[in-house]
Amino acid sequence: MAHADCTSFWSRMAHADGRPPKKPGGLSNEDRALWKKVTDSIDPLAKAGDKMAEPERNPRSHTPPVAPIRPKEKPAPPSPAQAPGKGLDRRSSERFRRGKLPIDGRIDLHGMTVSRAHARLDSFIAQSCALGRRVLLVITGKGREGGQGVLRREVPIWLSEGENRNRVLSVHRAQPRDGGDGALYVLLRRNRS
Questions:
Q1: What confidence tens digit (pLDDT) does each residue in 128-155 have?
Q2: Domain boundaries along the sequence of the chain
Q3: Three-state DSSP state, 172
Q4: Distance CA 166, CA 160 (A)
Q5: Closest CA to 142 of 72, 80, 99, 73
Q6: Does the model's pTM come out above 0.70?
Q7: Alpha-carbon 152 to chain mean position
Q8: Do 135 and 183 meet the contact criterion of CB atoms below 8 Å apart?
Q9: Side-chain half-sphere of 52: how many Cα atoms within 13 Å?
Q10: 101 near 134, Cβ under 8 Å?
Q11: Scanning 38, 80, 81, 152, which has the fewest C-beta atoms within 10 Å of its C-beta?
Q12: CATH class, range 90-188
């Protein structure tokens, strides 16, 4: 389209309200006035080298900075083996680790929620102590996370906390025939009462 054609095109285009049409790249007087009003209301930024003043902050609208979220590192699962306590000779300790002692009680925790499993384990340990049981099999399961299941990681910790610390003499990973990495042998202290 030639320049003359463009001019005639724009002159033919008329607004319904009678305003002259805008030329390509040009502003109407109304738009210029509006633009001037906007630019007059803006404070210029500091020039390079000038010290910038801190903007005023409205204390009600200010939100504290949020710390960046870092992915949690998976802690290494605690070793399920605790050193044999007092009152356990070397031969008994070896038989315990090899799964040669008769199992007096077992509990299967896998598939339970963490809170339910914790409560059930604590109750099972207390009941087993009261009944004079010595060797327990605690089945945690291996977990869905490539062998790093929550119960598999947490149960050894629970066995060493609170009342269980006084009741449990030793803990060791079970032999494959009894569940392997997804189960623990728990040796309880002798009930002296």
A1: 999 999 999 999 888 776 657 888 889 9
A2: 3-40, 90-188
A3: strand
A4: 8
A5: 80
A6: no
A7: 17
A8: no
A9: 9
A10: yes
A11: 38
A12: alpha beta
Spatial separation of the C-alpha atoms in residues 5 and 31, rounded to whole Å: 25
Which long-range CB contacts under 8 A does 174-179 form with residues at least 24 apart? Answer: 174/99, 174/137, 175/98, 175/99, 177/99, 178/99, 178/103, 178/137, 179/137, 179/139
Tokens of 137: 């099999």
**Selected residue with higher pLDDT from 104 and 5:** 104
CB atoms within 10 A of CB 165: 9
For the chain, the residue count is 193
- Tokens representing 161? 């906390």
Please report which helix (H) or strand (E) contains residue 106, including its range: strand 105-108
Joined together, the tokens standing for residue 79 give 């070793």
137 three-class SS: strand
- Identify the three-state secondary structure at position 167: helix
Distance CA 150, CA 110 (A): 10
